[in-house]
Design goal:
It is built from four helices and twelve strands; from the N terminus they run H-H-H-H-E-E-E-E-E-E-E-E-E-E-E-E. The chain is of the alpha+beta class and 245 residues long. It has two domains: 2-49, no CATH class; 94-243, Rod shape-determining protein MreC, domain 1 (Thrombin, subunit H, Beta Barrel). The strands form two sheets. It has a six-stranded antiparallel beta barrel with strand order 1-2-5-4-3-12. A hairpin with a 2-residue loop joins strand 3 and strand 4 (132-140).
Length: 245
């Protein structure tokens, strides 16, 4: 009898602890299944909030936009590399040099090249980019060179308008577009005219492309002035060629 009275309370305690046994079994199941049940339950409960057809369309549009932007960037890179290759094909007497820095406050004034006098670069040498002339070397060190751009406010260069057979002076304004000044009143220059270096130039090679006339102000005295759009991308150039002879 004493033994039976001891077993009954023990069984009763075990029966009363069934919630804890159930919790223990649940934890063991989670451990063995690595939480798969919770993941399935979460997926079932969150299904009403999954993206619908409108959200899916937005996602597809966003992906298409990203793909289009990537394609355009690849096309621009391809065009730039082709331009550099074309520039390099006519590299006799020229030195290719990377643009290593430019002053943020003087973006349209100067840039720094990663080659200098050790590579044959001298002050005054013309600097070309894909599209045409962009400036001249203003100073050099053994390993670097500083370029004064045609857009620099101190830049002055004699140029030629072939269609009307007129000389002019290209003057930098510290902005993306330099001004073309004339000596004669009636020049006949109009938007779209091509600007090159003078055929008689001695400072730079003759007949180098510079840009095109964007607009003409005929009302200025004593002679009209024109705004010129440079043909080379001065704001985005990363490689140039320096004429060494």
């Amino acid at each position: 009898m004493p033994g039976r009275s001891l077993r009954v309370p023990t069984l009763r305690k075990v029966a009363e602890a069934w919630p804890w046994w159930l919790l223990l079994l649940a934890l063991l199941g989670v451990r063995l299944s690595k939480g798969a049940g919770f993941v399935d339950a979460y997926a079932l409960l969150s299904r009403p909030f999954w993206p619908g057809s409108a959200q899916s369309e937005w996602l597809r549009s966003a992906q298409q936009l990203q793909d289009q932007a990537n394609l355009q960037q690849l096309q621009r890179d391809n065009q730039r590399l082709r331009s550099l290759l074309d520039l390099d094909r006519n590299s006799t007497g020229r030195v290719s040099a990377p643009v290593i820095s430019r002053d943020e406050g003087g973006w349209w004034q100067q840039l720094e090249l990663g080659k200098g006098s050790l590579d044959g670069i001298r002050a005054g040498a013309p600097v070309l980019a894909p599209g045409g002339l962009i400036g001249r070397v203003s100073s050099v060190t053994p390993t670097t060179a500083r370029v004064e751009l045609l857009t620099d406010s101190g830049s002055r260069l004699g140029v030629w308008v072939a269609r009307v057979q007129r000389h002019g002076l290209l003057v930098g304004q510290g902005t993306p577009r330099p001004q073309l000044q004339f000596l004669e009143k009636d020049t006949g220059v109009r938007p779209g005219d091509v600007i090159t270096t003078s055929p008689a130039s001695t400072l730079v090679p003759p007949n180098l492309l510079i840009g095109v006339v964007q607009s003409v102000n005929e009302d200025l005295a004593p002679a009209p002035e024109a705004t010129v759009q440079l043909s080379a991308p001065v704001d985005a150039v990363d490689w140039v060629q320096v004429v060494t002879r």
